[in-house]
Amino acid sequence: ETGVTQTPRHLVMGMTNKKSLKCEQHLGHNAMYWYKQSAKKPLELMFVYNFKEQTENNSVPSRFSPECPNSSHLFLHLHTLQPEDSALYLCASSQVLAGEETQYFGPGTRLLVL
Amino acid sequence: LAKTTQPISMDSYEGQEVNITCSHNNIATNDYITWYQQFPSQGPRFIIQGYKTKVTNEVASLFIPADRKSSTLSLPRVSLSDTAVYYCLVGGYSGGGADGLTFGKGTHLIIQP
Q1: Which residues of B touch A (CB under 8 A)?
Q2: Window A:55-84, CB contacts with B under 8 Å
Q3: CA atoms lying within 13 Å on the CB side of residue A73
Q4: Are A107 and A9 in contact (CB under 8 A)?
Q5: What DSSP line would sit under A77-104, residue for residue?
């Protein structure tokens, strides 16, 4: 049990659908992250929220829209996705400390776009 | 860009000790070194973290030389279930901005019977 939960665990959607991924951390951390991992590729950082403020947007297309209403919850809103967006989407959290932090990951959402 | 360099893959056998070395020539004074393990279709899992010399926990040891420009993850007596991708990161977000969160390709460790 990592203390980071993600729902849903699996999602199939069409290119015209709108869906949202949810992440919740129960660790009292002050930073949350979205990563994308396509098949046999490294993790790609998408967004960083530090104290609820978005501090990194790693050139992610606008069809991905993050939301962080508080330090424990993070959403990724999806709309008009493409088949190449099919991947494992991972949420993580950490307590930002000067050079010393550890990230805790959720189990991920396996997304398939048809 | 990742701040670290690791071998792409390694092979070993059950019961052996496995050492994976990571290079981080530009590590900053405040940066810690953290290793993660990832199984297919799962998120990475923290293994061990250290700043200098040697750190040991129930699953691994981490050796860091005095110049801190490299580190070695040591897995004692590996089993088939240790087959996974292992990532080395330095600093995290506060220590390196987005670069501190770049996992790179990691080391794919394959354990054979």
Answers
A1: 28, 30-32, 34, 36, 41-46, 49, 51, 90-98, 100-106
A2: 56, 58
A3: 8
A4: yes
A5: EEES--GGG-EEEEEEEE---TTB---E
Q: Is A28 helix (H, G, I), strand (E, B) or coil?
A: coil
Amino acid in the structure at residue B9: S
* pLDDT over 60 at A1, yes or no: no
Q: Can you tell me the mean pLDDT for A46-54?
A: 83
Residues in chain B: 113
**Residue A99 — left, alpha, or beta (φ > 0 → left; ψ -120 to 50 → alpha)?**
left
Structure tokens at B62: 């981490």
A109 contacts A8 by C-beta, under 8 angstroms? yes
| Nearest chain B CA: its distance from A48 CA (Å) | 9
* β-bridge mates for residue B5, sequence order: B23
Nearest residue to B106 (alpha-carbon basis) of B1, B22, B42, B11: B22
Q: What is the predicted pLDDT for the residue at B96?
A: 62
Per-residue pLDDT at B99 = 75
- pLDDT tens digits for A77-107? 999 999 999 999 999 999 887 677 889 999 9
| pLDDT for the residue numbered A55 | 75
Looking at the complex, report in whole angstroms how far the Cα of residue B55 sits from the nearest Cα belonging to chain A.
14
